[in-house]
Structures are given as C-alpha cells and as structure tokens.
Amino acid sequence: MNKLAQKVFNDLEKVRHEKPLVHNITNYVVMNNTANALLAIGASPVMAHATEEVADMVNIASALAVNIGTLSRHWVDAMSVAMKVAQDRGVPIVFDPVGAGATPYRNETCRKLLQEVPPTVLRGNPSEIMAVAGALEIDYKNKDNDIKTKGVDSTVQSNSAVTAAKELAKFLGCVVSVSGETDYIVDEEKVNEVHNGHEMMPLITGLGCTATSLTAAFAGVCESPYDAALDAMIIMGIAGEISAEDSIGPGTMQLEFIDALYTIDYEQVSLRIRVNNP
Amino acid sequence: MNKLAQKVFNDLEKVRHEKPLVHNITNYVVMNNTANALLAIGASPVMAHATEEVADMVNIASALAVNIGTLSRHWVDAMSVAMKVAQDRGVPIVFDPVGAGATPYRNETCRKLLQEVPPTVLRGNPSEIMAVAGALEIDYKNKDNDIKTKGVDSTVQSNSAVTAAKELAKFLGCVVSVSGETDYIVDEEKVNEVHNGHEMMPLITGLGCTATSLTAAFAGVCESPYDAALDAMIIMGIAGEISAEDSIGPGTMQLEFIDALYTIDYEQVSLRIRVNNP
Amino acid sequence: MNKLAQKVFNDLEKVRHEKPLVHNITNYVVMNNTANALLAIGASPVMAHATEEVADMVNIASALAVNIGTLSRHWVDAMSVAMKVAQDRGVPIVFDPVGAGATPYRNETCRKLLQEVPPTVLRGNPSEIMAVAGALEIDYKNKDNDIKTKGVDSTVQSNSAVTAAKELAKFLGCVVSVSGETDYIVDEEKVNEVHNGHEMMPLITGLGCTATSLTAAFAGVCESPYDAALDAMIIMGIAGEISAEDSIGPGTMQLEFIDALYTIDYEQVSLRIRVNNP
Fold this sequence. Notes:
Helix content of chain A: 55-70%
Largest interface: A-B, 30 and 29 residues
Structural class of chain A: alpha/beta
Oligomer: homotrimer
Radius of gyration of chain A: 17 Å
Largest sheet of chain A: 9 strands, mixed
Strand content of chain A: 5-15%
Shape of chain A: globular
CATH superfamily of chain A: Ribokinase
Strand order of the largest sheet of chain A: 2-1-3-4-5-6-7-8-9
C-alpha cells in the first residue's frame, strides 16, 4: 500500500506544482465549492459556458470537466462544442451525468453527448452510472445474474453499477468512476475499490461534482486517466475523513474539507489509504 | 407550548425519515445554501429549471419551491410549467416573491404566475407580501386604518403586511408566511406569531430563500400546509439562535446554522420555542 | 497614515450607516460570497440580470457592479443596458473584466461595453488590465521601456500593468484598481500602493469579485471614486490579514473573512494600514 500512497502523493504534488487549468462547464449549485476545491488542491479553475468562447477556453486548458447538474439547451450546446474540441486537442474530459435517470431529458442529453464524444473518465453514483448504461442501450443486466441474488439492495445496486460500469468502460473506451460508500474505479480490465470516505459526505451538496473536477485536475497532470480517477477518489475520501473529525455537522465540515485538501500531506495519505486490489 | 414543540419535532423527524424530494427552481445566489440546508434537515434537494424537464422532475417530487430571486424569461417559463404540473398532481407549491416591489418585471411575474396557479404557501418579507397584494390588485389598505396609525414604520409595515397576508390568503386560498423579526403564519382564519430568530440572520444572504425551501420540505411530509409553514419558521428561528451563540459574525454563523439544522433535537425545540396563539 | 486610516474608517462607517444598494450583474461562481461580503460590510446587495428589469434596478441603486466572469449573450446585453442607464443617472459603475485575455470573446465584450460606457472604476488583476488595454488598442508598451528590463516576470508584469492602467485611466477617464500582492490605485495623476493582504487570499475563489463589489459599495457613499477604490482595497487587505491569522486553510478563511468585514474597527484599520504615497 505504501507504494500506492507514494504514487498518489506524487500525483498530488504534481497538481500542486503544475497547477493545471481545469475548464469546468458545471452546475450553478456547486460552482463556488468546485472552484475552491480546485484552488485548495493547487489547480487553477475556470468556469465558462458561452458557445462563443468554450472552444478557446478548452484550447488553453489541461482538462475539461462537464457536469449536467442544472442543464439547459444553451449549456448542452456548449458542452457539445467543448467536448469535440477537447477530443481534437487531446484534452482529457471528465463527464458527470448528475441526475441521470431522474428525467428523460437528462438521459437523452447523456446519450447525445457521450455518443458524440466518449469521455476520458465517466464519474457518477451507482444509479447515475446504471442510467447512463440504459441511455446508451447497453445490456448489462443479463451479465450479472450471479451478483443480483447476493443480498441487500445497496450491495446489489453497487454490484449492478460495477457491471454496468465495466460495460460502459468497454463501450466508450473510458475509465468509469463509481462513487459511494465504496468507490469503484473501473476500466475494461480491472476494478479497484476505494474504502476511504465518511458517512457525512453525502450531506454536503456537490461533493460528487467536486470529485469530478478533482479527477479532471489529476487527469491534467497524469499520463493515465485510470490513475487520475483513483487519485481523486482517494484524496477526496481522506480529506472527508480528516474534515469529519473536527466537524459538528455538514456545515462546518464543508470548509474543513477545503482546508484538508489544502493541507493534506504524505503521512496522512499513507496512514489512511484503504484500497482493495491496488 | 410543549404540545406544539412535540408536534414540530415530530414533523422534523418525519422529514428526517421520509427524506422528501424538494424540487427547487430558485435563484443563483442561494442554490448552494438551499441545497445544504435541505440536506442538513434530512430532505433531498434537486435543482432543475429547463422547460424540457421540469414537468418530469415535479412528477417525482414531494414538493416544489419556486423563487424569483434572479428571474429571467426562460426561468419564468419553467416556473409556469412546473407550477401547473404540481397543481395537477397535488404536489404542494411554496412560492417566494423575492424582490417583489423592486421592479415592475418582478411584480408582473408574480401576478402572472400566481394568477395561473395559486401556491400552497406564499412566503416573503413584509414588503414583498405587500407588493404581491398590490400586484394582484388586492385592496388591503382600506382594511387596516386603525392599524396604520399605531406607530413606527416597522410596526406599521408588519401590521400592514399581516393585513395584506390575510387578504392574499383569502384571495389565493393559501397559507401566507410573513418573515421578519416576528414571523406571521397567516391563513383565512388565524395568525400565529413566531418570535424565534436572531438579529444577525438578515446578514446572511438567502436565509429567506432557505425558509422557503424548508417550508417545502415540511409541506412534503405534513398533511397541513399551515403546520408546514409554522414548523419551518420555528426550526429556522431556533437554528438561527443556536448558531448565533457560537459565531463571531455572519460568516461563521452561515455554517453553524447548517450544523444546527443537522443536530437540532427535541430538547432544543421545547426549551426555545416561542409562538403566540399556538 | 493616521489621517488616511481615519478617512478610510469614516467611509466604512458611511457604508454601515447609509447601507447603499449595490446592483450586481456578476458571475455564477461568486454571487453568494459577494452578497455576503456586501451584507457584512453594511451594504445592501441585489443581483438582477434580466434585460426586462436591469434599468429599473439601476434606478434605485447607489452603485452598479458589472463582472464578466461567466458571461453569455443575454447577460452582456443586460450589462450594456444597465451601464447606459447608470451613466445617464450618475450611478457609479465598477467594471471587473474577469478573465480578459483568456478568450477573444472576453476581450471583445470588454471592448464593446467599455467603448459604449466608460466605467467609474475599472478593477482587475495585472493581466486582465493589460488585456483590456490591448482590447481597446491602447499602446502602452512603448511607454515603459525602462521598466520592462528591470527584473522578474511578476515585477515586470505589475509595472507594465501600472503603465497600462495609467493609459486606461486617461483613455476612459476613470480610476483603475490593479489588484495583486501589491494593489495599485491609479488615475491620470497619481498612483497609490496598498500593501495590505495575505498570500492565501488568491486561494479563495472570487475575492477579486468581492473587491469589485465592495468598491461599488464605497462608490455609493463616497464623493471620490478614487477614494472608494482605495478604501475597498485597504479594507479587503486588512480583512484578509485578520482572517488568515485564525485559519488553517482557505476553507475556514473564507468565512473568517466575512466575519472580519463585519467586525473590523478603527483600531484594526489604523494599526494595519500600509499604503505608499498616501
């Protein structure tokens, strides 16, 4: 595990030194937190969504984070333009299908955008990942019969989500990061489980969106998108644990979390990291 | 008072256990705080404003909160669609006329939306409530002559607002929640005054908007919209008092307030509750 | 220096007592912080961006802050309308060219808006100020040959920015506030340097935008726009110093900063103020 801790910390130090510019087309709810989390980790955030400028912004960015949390037509148009330019220029794209499964419009938007340009990393919670698989008409359900009978709903759901994630990774040729109590980092060949994190994290709005943009920051400095996804979820989880220790509730924890991203050091990473199959 | 405290706390526990999905079409300034306040109280927030999806989102929601704080044409269109669907499906609507009275556009938007669909609860500060009454051409001024002469501006204003609120409650067939140093929960027949709260609360942006969305959360689990409005203002006020005690200024208080919503227990409610005519 | 400290504190007290209404057309990332900073300092914030209402809102405002951080077509239209009305009514305009230089769209928007209506105060970081000078085709580079050879990039850049600022002040007939480790308050005749501040401030998203809106608040109560720009940067810098002392990282500092704006007193101003050429 110490080897992995060293690798994760080295990547964090790369973010801190290279200060990758992360272009975010994200939702209104989380923009402030996302920008502060990126700054705290050492990256340089920019938010821009006008079709008139997204191509130019992607051109100077190290990574692109696209998040459909509060989508509307003009924003989707801009996401489409930005993702095409990013693909052309080799800029890594991290895509967050917020609320996929909640409305047909979200599903259709995911289908449209992901069929046009496959992302480098797809990051979502279990139900979002399954909804994206459904939107892309990927038949993952027949492939996990042995898993579906195993137990309680949440387990089933996570297992189903991992099955869906594997099929999505194959279909899109991307890494899929499934976040939850356990995070699963999935590509065509392997799955790593990240067990870091804290139960109060889901009570802070937009931490999933933060995970997406931190993944983009790591993707801006790492050769391997898989490593970027793994780094981000480990750092998120550890910062969550540290911040929960000094917090009474999710209010104060929100800012302790930003402080933890800013101060996190090698000792904390090496003592706390909990990854299966590293 | 203990009976009321028990009722309020039971409703809070209902929110915590049922986790009602509250669909918010609200303003850019407060989205983050609103989402965090809803999560802290145990509800499940979603923000969505595209006309392409608001009907589908209302369909799965327990309550709809509409807030015109940073309105523009497409958003007003979406509010109109969402309110009609909510009315059809019996989903309670809490409407917040932010800034009514400041510009003709805000007054016209209130008139248009409220004439199309009366809300379940209308929540605003005294001047907003009076502006809405004016926008709907409700003649409340002739009805409080004895009140208008009573004293200082703020008193007059609150009394005028209560008079306006009563007329609005009759005209729209809804509950009206007038917030200020004293909150007035008004329907056609009765008025309750909530005296909880703290003078630093108006220095935190968007606490009124939070009150609106918490009212929606309670409306999602309570039979009675009147009780929902009363619950929300009592819990807001008590959380404000608790958070002010440990805060130097409105900055730290902002997060202590979220923590207080998360940790508030029966003892705090029963010891602090201050309601007239309960 | 005590005379300046007294002047700055008197202006702060004016803001606290007159509570100027500051109309902000600003970006999605910072709206919440901006509103809270304005409330903390005693001003009254309003955010409104619909072309249907910006003229009416400017009419009741003491100052207008325009910030292009997350610009798009309809927002730029609204900025144009609002700035014209502000000019007609003598309402001071503070303009923040966020991200000028990053994309042609931002440069063109700055050129269009500033050519239509010169602002009262232009506030940006060194590269933004130089980008605005470039967008307006102001040839400032030939005028600082002796400076450009002096040393490290940042020095050159600040010096170049001050040269650009002087030319912009002449061309637009406005005050230019260049923020950075040292802030430069520039008009046609003079430059003051503000050395207050803390190195952690750039790690909090939107503090530049906050500076813009606080400048607007001071411009709403001061006769002299130059004094308003100077007041705002001194108060920002001192609040930054105070808040950094009790913070572990930029997360907690974000709220300590709001508290500091709320509690700042004459003693703190007089002990900490560091201005060259006052």
